[in-house]
Amino acid sequence: MKEKTYEKEREFLSPYAKKSWESAGRLKEEEECPMRTDFQRDRDRIIYSKAFRRLKNKTQVFFAPDGDHYMSRLTHTLDVCQIARSLARCLGLNEDLAEAIALGHDLGHTPFGHVGERVLNELSPYGFHHAEQSLRVLDILEKEGQGLNLTFEVRDGILNHTSKGKPVTLEGVVVSYADRIAYINHDIEDAIRAGFLAEEELPKEAVRVFGRDTSKRINTAINDIVKASEGQPFVKMSEEKEGALRELRAFMFNRVYERANKLIQDNAKRMIETLYFYFTSHAEELPPPYDKTDAARAACDYLSSATDHYAISLFRSLFEPREGAV
């Protein structure tokens, strides 16, 4: 079965795609699967990981919103995956590699969205960035401390999925674009749904370039990337669309991400700070596989793995008086 996949890749993929048999390999050698390529195995390992399941209860932008249709970290990840696969298919790139990178790109995200990330980055002597933590989750923390032993290309794409990253594969670049396209557009949708933003407030030039509704903006972005990159040894947007995407991103950071739910953000900051200081002083209370000999690292690993609900429950169990307590 795997050989049939190889044959299809030889026949249909772009010369610039990363073929499955070209992988630089894993951190540790292991017996190969007779049916699945290495990238397909990586995808499956990520999907069945505990970190992936926890994404359903992690904030994207709005904390515990009223309504069933707001984005979570899991629905965002699925959006990124779909956009990345569409781009990879249109450009003749390796869909399995793009899918694996997309599914794993946010596994290291903290509870409470970027608020949690910012707090841990300020507190930890190592700093904290969700892309680096995603790789740490996959390399070290998953599978009770054994890690998932993923391929170099998937690990590289996850580490370099942000706008400042430089992935070594075009599939990694595809995921980087897919991530920005997904979160900017669906976060706009959530902000409008929450009444935090009005459609007419969006930057007029960006609306002119991409369109007014989510579907139109995403389709415009995908079509532009395909048009600019098809048959080329690179993946990019046209200058006009790239500039408009940057404008939308800057607008969302200034107008929404830094200001949304200010009171809840303050509470989230207080909880993460308090929990961090508690566990750096009580590392012995951390469960395995967290390394208790390095309290700062272990506290970051533990808290960043928590869902929003678990972090709140943990804070209450440690610091709120219990009924009947003297």
Summarize the structure.
The protein is 61% helix and 0% strand. With 326 residues, it is an all-alpha fold.
Q: Explain this structure to me?
A:
With 326 residues, the chain is mainly alpha-helical. The chain has helices at residues 2-12, 38-47, 50-54, 73-91, 95-104, 113-123, 130-145, 152-159, 170-193, 204-210, 214-229, 239-257, 262-281, 295-305, 308-319. Helix 4 (73-91) packs across helix 9 (170-193), helix 4 runs parallel beside helix 11 and helix 9 (170-193) crosses helix 12 (239-257). The longest helix has 24 residues, at 170-193. The chain is flat and about 65 Å long. The protein starts with a helix and ends in a 7-residue tail after the last helix. The mean pLDDT is 92.
> What sequence of helices (H) and strands (E) makes up the elements?
HHHHHHHHHHHHHHH
Radius of gyration: 21 Å
Helix % is 55-70%
Note the total helix count: 15
User: Helix/strand-derived class?
Assistant: mainly alpha
Q: How many beta-strand runs? A: 0
Report the β-strand fraction as a percent range: under 5%
Biggest sheet, open or closed, and with what strands and sense? none
Alpha-carbon distance between the two ends: 66 Å
Arithmetic mean of pLDDT = 92
**Unreliable stretches, pLDDT < 50, 5 or more residues?**
none
